[in-house]
Amino acid sequence: MTEAELKQLVEKISEQAFQRPFKHQVKINHRMTTTGGRYYLNDHHLEINDHFLAPQYRNELIGIIKHELVHYHLHLAHQGYRHRDSDFKLLLNRVQGSRYAPDIGLRRKPKRKYTYVCQNCKVTFKRVRRIDVSRFACGRCGGMLRLINEQK
Fold first, then answer.
1. What is the pLDDT along the chain (152 residues), one digit of tens a residue?
2. Which of 3, 15, 68, 150 is flagged as catalytic?
3. pTM here?
4. Is 68 among the catalytic positions?
5. d(Cα 77, Cα 114) in Å, to the nearest integer?
6. Would you call 106 exposed, middle or buried from its count of C-beta atoms within 10 A (0-12, 13-18, 19+)?
């Protein structure tokens, strides 16, 4: 989905759910991982997480767009646009927008790639980053470490 197609979808949802036009920009953000979208107060544009543009997340995308449009329309109407405001909660329920971005696996913690073992006390250490075994020692006994497993 391109930004132009996304803007058309946002304009359509805005007209159908809010009976108001959307007159600003919509951008695709490739760096978002924990949020579905974002509304900017200073220039009123929306950013949408590109992971939700896949066809299998169509319903989630519509819920996220509705959520951001609730921020947009309430802010322009000088009403409570923040998550904690009752105006926001009421309008979000009325248009059936999503309260939270669904977890589609972007929040998963990285797997431990490197496994080290102490040559003295045989304790294993799992690390995300590679360490210099000539500079670091076992924290338990002070023995030398050896890399035993490296996952890709």
1. 899 999 999 999 999 999 999 999 999 999 988 899 999 999 999 999 999 999 999 999 999 999 999 999 999 999 999 999 999 999 999 999 999 988 887 777 667 789 999 999 999 999 988 999 999 999 999 999 999 987 76
2. 68
3. 0.73
4. yes
5. 53
6. middle
